[in-house]
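User: Hey, quick favor. My workstation is busy. Could you predict this chain's structure for me?
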Amino acid sequence: MQEWLLEFEQVHYTYLGAQQSALNGLTLRIPAHKRCALIGQNGCGKTTLFLLANGLYKPNKGSVHWQGKSLKYDRNSLMKLRQKVGLIFQDPEQQLVASTVEEDISYGLCNLGLPEVEIQQRVEQALVEFGLTELAQRPVHHLSLGQKKRVSIADVMVLRPELLLLDEPTAYLDKLHTRNLMATLKKIHAAGTTILMATHDLDLVYRWADWIFVMDKGRLVLEGKPQDVFTQRDILEELQLGVPLIYEMLFADGVAEEGPVLERLRQRILNLFRYF
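Assistant: No problem, here it is.
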């Protein structure tokens, strides 16, 4: 039986002063232990979904459930939720709040009021896990974009969340930093954390994701495994999303033929495009 971590039930949300709803009756369920991707045009509601998932926003209508229970919006409940649901913003500058890397990683732990010994132990572990030991005393404003993204992930993962939300994590990163980031996410997922990533990179989605959500105008339009979602080419073209380049090369006519020769060719092409 499938286990759902986070569920949206007929969720509506409209920003103050906006004429159109950001989410318009969204119903979506995030499966546990999966690598999920969220795709859609700018303005489709991806970031709003993340902010509601983390309890930063509250639905105007409908409900959000964590492991089968409706979210509560009192301070203590939200603090517990944000330990379980970690959110990484597209721009790490929105997330980094302290002077040095070490201080920034410890910030969330200090807010929880954990013993100093445990805080130090967790911070040291995070510095090692995310390759930040040599940068521990570095001022955060001296870091490169790739380093800042690593610190922002460490900030969240030090809290040991069950679900990690990433809003356009590869935006503005070069190929090397993207490879390093995806290697980090691979380790995070292998350790048991469910991941939901919003991205415009369809080739990355095709290679990486176990499950895909497609949103448009604040609603869920499609969901499923990559090979199932990308066969819905007419719908994706109508949404001006298209299909991954790899998929285009393999199945130009939209039909996936069977056979060992085609499978070997498919794997060879995938390997050529793989960078993580």
